[in-house]
Each structure stands twice: as structure tokens, then as C-alpha cells.
User: What shape does this take?
Amino acid sequence: MKIDKIINNNIVSAYDTDGKEVVIMGRGLGYKAKIGQTIPKERIEKVFKMDDQNSVDKLKSLFKDLPLEHIQISNDIVMYAMKNLNKKLNKNIYITLTDHICFAIDRYKKGFEFTNPLKWEVKRLYKNEYRIGMYAVELINKRAGVQLLDDEAASIALHIVNAEYNTSPSEAINITTLLENVLCIVKNFFDIELDEDSLHYERFITHMMYLARRIFKKQQLDDNEAEYMSMIRNLYPEDYKCSYEISDYIEKEFKRKLTEEELMYLTLHIKRVRTDEN
Assistant: This one.
């Protein structure tokens, strides 16, 4: 690849074999470089391939004035997250997470630190992502010479959740609130405590994540299983009543009404998570 634009001493852009612009990171890569010059492979640390030109432009604008070390930290966290979650993340996390990390470091150096009001909810609901957030805070503190609070682990975890499920920051907050309240409804309805380490609990949270995402994107499952729904309602009447109570809460709070198909799957997941307690 050949240099098309020099962003700063460590960042340049080029075009790949498909004719798409990519952003390339490497220490000293842009220093005294010239447009049209071939980029030595051994000097390339990372090639950022975004999904659209708008994201490429945002990335170039963000990276222009950032220290290379901060970009490297963010990239290492993203790589760690994908490895531990065993899934790909929305590429825009390179923009949102890098910006967040740099802002957090800058705030700390200026003497400003903020607590995250959703810290405990994030810690309980997104255990894997929160563990990655804790790793990220340790890495940032070690390599940037700061002492960020654990609250930043929750903030970073939410960025990862957004990238996992393709949600916006505002949707992530709504989803987290919805999940927490749904868990309270289930516990109060059956007067039980849920085993947060069980497989069924983890599956219930995952199901609720996707259900919440469908709710906010107005993409619920269609009512195609009326006969099966009737059978589920008769087999698990108490679990169905609980799912209907959840549906009432969602309709009142978020102005969204669950379809019968969504109620059916929700009933099954409530039955399973409740089975762990019995």
C-alpha cells in the first residue's frame, strides 16, 4: 500500500486492494513521509478497516491529535475484548472507546473524576464485559500513569456492550434499566433470589438483551406460533403471568407492547431461570 494522506507522525491513510481507504498506525510512520510512498510492512502496527467512509473520516479526525500510546491502549483493549468474548465487535468501537479513554485520562490529569451511576447494574448484568473493563482500567493506569476509578470499568464495559449488540449509548442505558427492573419483577413475583452464576441466568440475560434491542428498534418477532403459545400458556401459567407483568411494565415505561411470540419465549426463559431456584 502507498500513503495517500499523512495524518500525523504515527498515522497515515492509504487504499487497500479493494479501493477502500484504511487508516494505518505505526510509530514514526508519517514522519518525513511523502504521499505516494510505499508503506513498509514491517513498520505497520495496525490497519484500521472501517465499514464506511464516514467512520474512516471520524477515525482520522480523532487520531490526528492523539498520542500514539493512547491509541495503542484502546486497540489492545479491543483485541482483548474480542478474544475473551470470542466475537467480533462493531468497528466504531475504535472511535468511541479511544475517545472515551483519552477523555478519561485528560479528566484525571485535570483533577476531575466522575462516578458511574450504573456501575453496580453493569457489574451484575454484564459480568464478562465488566471483567474486561477492569482489565482495561488496570492497563490504562499502568501505561498512562494514572489511577482511574473502578467506575471507568463500567463505562468501558458499556462501550463493549454497545459494540456487541450494535446499540447507541442512550439505548444501552435504557436496556440496562429495563434488564434491572425485569429481574426485580421476576424475583418479586415468585419471591425468590436468582442464581447469577447459573447458565440459565446467563441465557435469560442474553435473551433480554436481544429482546430489549428488538423493542427499541421496533423489530419484535411476529405472531406466527399461536397454537404453540396457547400450549405454553397452559403448561406454565405462573411463568406466563410473570411475563405478562413484564410486558405491562415495558408498555407503561417504554410505550412498546410485546407480541405474543415474544411473550412465549420470555415465558420459557422465566421457567428455565426459575427452575434453577427449585
